[in-house]
Amino acid sequence: MAGNEWIGGYLDAILDSGSGRDETKLAAAKIGAGRDAVTAAKYFVNEVTGHDDAALYRTWIKASATKYPQERGSRMEYLCWRIWHIARRKKQQALADHKLKQKDYIKRPSYHMEWDDAQRLARRHLERQRGAKEAADEMSCEDLSEGEKEKPDVASELPPIVEGNEIRLGKTSNETDPADQKKEKRLYIVLISMHGLVRGDNMELGRDSDTGGQVKYVVELARALALMPEVYRVDLLTRQICDPAVDYEYGDPTEMLTVRSYDDEVTESGESCGAYIVRIPCGPKEKYIRKELLWPYIQEFVDGALSHILNMARVLGDQINNGEAHVWPHVIHGHYADAGDSASLLSGALNVPMVLTGHSLGRNKLEQLLTQGRETQGNINATYKIMRRIEAEELSLDTAELVITSTRQEIEEQWGLYDGFNVKTERALRIRARRNISCHGRYMPRMVVIPPGMDFSNVVVQDAGDVVDDVDSLAFSNSDGSVTTPVSPRSDPPIWSEIMRFFTNPHKPMILVLARPDPKKNITSLLEAFGETRPLRDLANLVLIMGNRDDIDNMSGGNADVLVQVLKLIDKYDLYGQVAYPKHHRQSDVPEIYRLAAKTKGVFINPALVEPFGLTLIEAAAHGLPMVATKNGGPVDIQKTLSNGLLVDPHNQKEIADALFKLVSDRNLWIDCRRNGLKNIHLYSWPEHCRTYLSKIAQCRMRHPQWQNDNTVDENNDVESQGDSLRDVRDISLRLSLDGDKLNSGGSKSPADFLKALERYGVRDSNGDQVRPLRSMKSGSRLESMPESIKRSISGTSDKNSSHLSSSKVSLLRRRKKLIVIAVDSYNNAGQPNEMLLKTIKAVIKAQQSDSSQKQTGLVLSTALTSSEVQNLLNSAEIPMHEFDALIVSSGSELYYPSGGDDAGADLHADPDYDSHIDYRWGGDGLRKTLASIFTPEQNGEKKVERALAEDEERFNSHCLAYKVLKPQLAPSVDQIRLRLRQRGLRCHVMYCQNEAKMRVIPLLAARSQALRYLFVRWGLDVANMLVIVGETGDTDHEELLSGTHKTVIVKGAVTSGCDRLLRVASNYARGDVAPADGPYISTAETVDDVGAAVMKFTKSRM
Known about the structure:
By secondary structure, this protein is an alpha/beta fold. Among the domains are: 187-258 and 271-449, 3-Layer(aba) Sandwich (Rossmann fold), CATH 3.40.50.2000; 494-684, Rossmann fold, CATH 3.40.50; 809-920 and 1007-1100, HAD superfamily/HAD-like (Rossmann fold, 3-Layer(aba) Sandwich), CATH 3.40.50.
C-alpha cells in the first residue's frame, strides 16, 4: 500500500458508505493485482456512488497522474470525501424513501407496495408479458385456421421497405393513393400544440425549453397541409398568452399562415380556406407558464377549443356544403402529451378520429433520469410532473386511431415502454381486423413512420466544389428540394460577423451546434470532448447557438445551469478565441448560420442523449453540412436515408471527438457526405410528408357526429315542451295565490285542479307574454287549444312507447341558454344516497323556480345511481321528474330525458344517439371476461384469499359493467386496474362510486364530464354557460368535474367521504395536476343553504 495512501481513503469511504467487508477485500485484491488507473477509477466510483459518473472518474485519473506526491495525495483525499459525500447522500435518500414506502405499506398492504428501481422494472416487465400472453391466449386457437396462425402479415407496415437510400412504408391492402382519387378541397384538419410561444413568423426558437423544434414543426406542418389540393382548412390550436413579458402577437386570437400554393393554378376557395393559428385562452390569463404547470387547465383548453370547432364546422358547412351539413374535422391531431390529452377529450366529445405525435415521451425520460441516479422519482415527479405526463400519453394511446412517429426506434424502444402498446399484440390485432375476426374488444393504435418535412424554397447552398468567396451559390428552385439553380453572390449577413468576432482565426472549419441549453442536449459533454482534444482544437472552431438570452439569472433553472457550466468549461480549458456563443439570433438568421458553417467546410453535430428525430440534421444537410449525431433515436434513420455523416455514442467523449476530427480533416469524406446529403434531401420535403400523411389518415375509421333523430326545430318554434307547460301552470298557481286563492305556489295536485285554474285564468301563449282565458273558448275547443304536453298531463298519458326523442324535447333543449348540473356524490356507508343529496336538489329547484327567467335555465342530475334508483329517490322526496331536463346516470354510461307524467317509469327517454356515441371501443363481453379473471384472487397455498369485488348484475346495462366492493381495504386502485386492462388491449373508464360501495366500468368515451360536452355538441348548450354543483370529494371521477370553462360551486359539508383513496397510489400524480385548487371559475358554498344564492347569481348573470 506504500505510495498509494489514497487507496486507504477510498476503502474507508466504501466502509463508511455501508459496503460489506467482502466487497472491500475484493476491491483491494483488484488494485493489488495491478489494475490500471482507468479500471480502478471506474470500479471505485461505480462501487461507491452506484452509477457510472464519467466526469468524476476522469477527474480522479487526472488527480492520480499529478506529478508531485504531496499534491496527488491532497487531491485524492479531497476526491475520497467527495465520493463519500455522494454515497452518504444517496444512502440517506434511500433510507428516507424506505421509510416512506414502509409507511405506505402499512397503510395499504395489498396493493400499494413499492420496490426499488430494479424490482419495479422487473415487476413491470413481468406484468406486461403476462398481459400480452393473456391477450394472445384469448385471441388464439378458436378463430384462426392453422394456415392463418403461421402465415406472416405480408401487408404489414412493419418493417418498412428500403429502396436504395429511401425508407418507404409498405402499403396495406386497403390503402389508397390520394393521387388516384379526385382531390376535392373539402378536408378540415385540426392540429393542437399547447405549450410554448407559437407564431408563424420570427419564431423565438430556443427562448425557453418549451419553444423549440416542435413549434417550428407544427407551424410548417399546418402551412404545408393547407397547400394540399384536398385540404380546405387547417387550424393549429395553441394557448393564448397575454403576458406583457412576451410579444403581443401571442395574444392575438387568430393568425393566418397560408400565403402561397404548391400548384401554379389558383383555385377559388371560401374566405375561411387556408391555415390558421387559433389561440385558446386557458389558465392564468396574463401569465406565460411552462408546460409542466399547464396540466390543471387541460379541460379549460378543451372547452374553448370545442366551442371554436363547433362554430367553424357550421361556417365551413355553409361554405362547402351550402349549409346542408356541417363540415366536421377529418382528424384531430395532438402533438406532445398535453395536446394528446386535449385531443383525446375533443375526439371523444365530437366522435371524430384522433391522431397523435409524441415528439418526446415521458416514460423514456423517466427511465433515463432514474438510471442517472442523481434524483429520486419523487423529485423527478415534482419537477417535471412526469407521472401526469405519462398518464396523458396512456390516455392518448387509448383514444388514438393513428400514432405518427419519426423513426422505427421510437416505436420499438419508446412507445414499447407503455402499457397501452405492444408491437406483437398490435400486429396480431391488425391481422384479425383485416380478416374480420373478433378481437374480443381489444384495440391498439396503428403506428406509422412519417419523417418530418422541410421547406426548401429559401435554402441557399454553396457550390459543392472548393468553397471560396467568389464562387456562385446554388438555390433550390422548387419546394421539394429536387432541383437546384445558381444564384448571384450576396453580401455577408450580419449574423456572420456576430459569430466570427469570437474567433482568433475565423477561417478554420466550424463545428456547429444548434440546440437550446437543455441538459438532455448534452452540450457540456461536447465542450469537454472539444477541450480535451488538442488536435481538434487546433483544426476547428466551435459555434454554440443556444437560443436567445438577456440575463442568465432570469432563465429557467435547467437552462441557466447548462449555460453556467458552458462558461466554466470554456474558462477551464482556456477556449477563448475558439468557441462562439452569441446571445441573440433571429429565426431568419438560422439558414445563414448553416451557410456560414458550410462555407468554412465545417460539420454540424447533434450530441443529444436521445433525439426523437433531429429536424436540425435535415436542415443542416439541406445546406450542405455533413453531420455527426447521436446514435440514440431518429438520427439512425436519417443517416440510413441521407448517408451524410457519422453516428456516435453521446456518452463517449472520445468517440465524439474522433468523429468530428475525422470529418473535418478528411477532405474526401467531407465532400462525399455533403454530396450524399444534397442528393437525397428531397426525401424529407413537406409535399412528400403531406402526401404520406393524408394517405395514412385516410385509413382511419372515419366517424363524426350523426344523429338518428335530428329533428330540426327552429329555436322560435311554437311547440312547447312538457316542462315548460307545467311551469306555465305553476305560474298560474302562483298568480292565484297572490290573488288570495287557496292554491299554493307549488302548483295543483290533480288534473281537476289544473282544469279549474285554466278555466279561470287561461293558457299562456307560446311566447310567454299573453294569457288566453280558457272559459272564453268554446267547450269543444278548450282541450284542443292547449299545448300537447298539458293535454297529456291532464289525461295522464305519455309517450312511453316512443323510442325516439320528441320534437318538443328538441325544442326545449335547444332553447335553453344555461344549464345547472347537480353532481353531488353524497352517500351513506352502505352506498345509498343520503339526505344531503336531496337537500341540495331541493335547494337548487327552489332557487331556480324563484327566478323569473327560469325558462332559459335547464336542470340536469349527474350521478352514479341507475335510472331506476334515481326515480325511486325523487319519488321518495316527491320531486317531479320533469323538473330535470336530463339525467346522466350510471356514472355517465346512460343519458335520459324526462318528459313528465305521474308514472315514473314512463317519464324517461333514453338518448339513442348517446348510446351509439359512446359505443366506440367498448369491450363488452370480452372486457367482462377479462375483469372476471383479474378480480379472481390467486390462491396462496391452502390459505383462503378473500375476494375484493363481485359482479352486480342488477346494475349492468349495455354500456356499464357494475361491481360490488366487498372489501374496500383489499380493492385495487383505479390506476392499477386500468394498467392491467391496457396491457391486454382493453380501453375503458374505471371508477369507484357511492362511497367505495360500488365500482363501474364504462366505455372510453363515456364519463359524466364528457356527457356535458355531448350536450354542447348535440343541443348547443355551451359548457361555458353551465353551473356544476359538486361536493368537496366524491366518486373517483369527481376531479374531472372541477375543471373546465363551466362555473363550479363546491358545497362544503355536502359529502363527508368519497372514493379518492382508491383513485391512485401515493407515488402517482395529485389532484392539483388535474384541476386547479381555485380560479375564476370555482367558488364555494359554506353550507347547502348557500347553494340557492349561487344558483340565483348564476341565472341572473349575463352570458
